[in-house]
Amino acid sequence: MVALRPTLGRSIANRDRLIFALDVPDLAGAQRLVERLADAVAFYKIGLELATSPHYFRLLDWLIGHDKKVFTDLKLYDIPATVSAAVRQLSKSGASFLTVHGDRAIMEAAAQSKGDELKVLVVTVLTSIAPRDLAEMGIGLSVEELVTLRARQAVAAGCDGVIASGLEAPALRKTLGAKALIVTPGIRPADGDRADQRRVVTPTQALEGGADYLVVGRPIRDATDPYEAAVAIQEEIARACG
């Protein structure tokens, strides 16, 4: 039996908490990797690399046809009417999660068009961004202040949750309460390479800090044995969640 951890008034299967970032350039490579990971991964994120290929929605349909959950990480950002129309279209796809960027009006447009099954997550601050990067962009807030501001706006606009580093997850959980989802990228095993990620945590740190889902890419994709790497993270999730 799959262990369940009561979170936010829902029960999330431990195996669903790992979201693998399927960052590969083509459909055939993506399918081979999914087949290699087999039962070690049940939830997949497909983002911009595959969105610029001809096969994005073929892959989405294929994943759902193989009983996988799909996170469409498209980071939609446009005028509210355009975002609303795009979210409405995507709500028919069978995807579970979708990301958006932008101001309160964009968030509200996405929330109003998402339907009952699709959950809209707002990107707070990318995990590749450090404090000096915000200063260079002319933003006078700290990373933590900006993440909290955007998270509050997301929930107030009716979105389902946020994308945020595990470093900010504890403060966000206190701020947002039990209702909002916190999905955390920038996850690295304790001995893992950070690559271009600046604000990273281990799976256990993220979960104990209040994250609901963990997005993991390169530590699995680039491992000598991706299946074993995914299993090891699943085992850590099971230990952290009880």
Describe the structure.
- The protein is an alpha/beta fold and 242 residues long.
- It has one domain: Aldolase class I (TIM Barrel, Alpha-Beta Barrel), CATH 3.20.20.
- 41% of the residues lie in helices and 18% in strands.
- The protein contains eleven helices and ten strands.
- The protein has an eight-stranded parallel beta barrel, surrounded by six helices. The chain has a two-stranded antiparallel ribbon with strand order 1-2.
- Helix 1 packs parallel to helix 3, helix 4 packs parallel to helix 5 (104-113) and helix 7 packs parallel to helix 8.
- It is globular and about 45 Å long.
- Mean pLDDT is 90; it is low at 1-6.
What amount of the residues lies in strands?
A: 15-25%
Q: In what order do the strands lie side by side in the largest sheet? A: 3-4-5-6-7-8-9-10
Number of strands: 10
Structural class: alpha/beta
CATH architecture: Alpha-Beta Barrel
Structurally, the number of domains stands at 1
Q: State the major sheet.
A: 8 strands, parallel, barrel
Could you name the CATH topology? TIM Barrel
Total helix count?
11
Specify the CATH homologous superfamily: Aldolase class I
Spatial gap, N to C terminus:
13 Å
In N-to-C order, the SSE pattern is EEEHEHHEHEHEHHEHEHEHH
Low-confidence region ranges: 1-6
Using the CA coordinates, give the radius of gyration.
17 Å
Task: Give the tags.
alpha/beta; 8-stranded parallel β-barrel; two-stranded antiparallel sheet; single chain; 41% helix; TIM Barrel; 242 residues
Task: Please sum up the structure shown.
With 242 residues, this protein is α/β, with parallel strands linked by helices. The chain contains 11 helices and 10 strands.
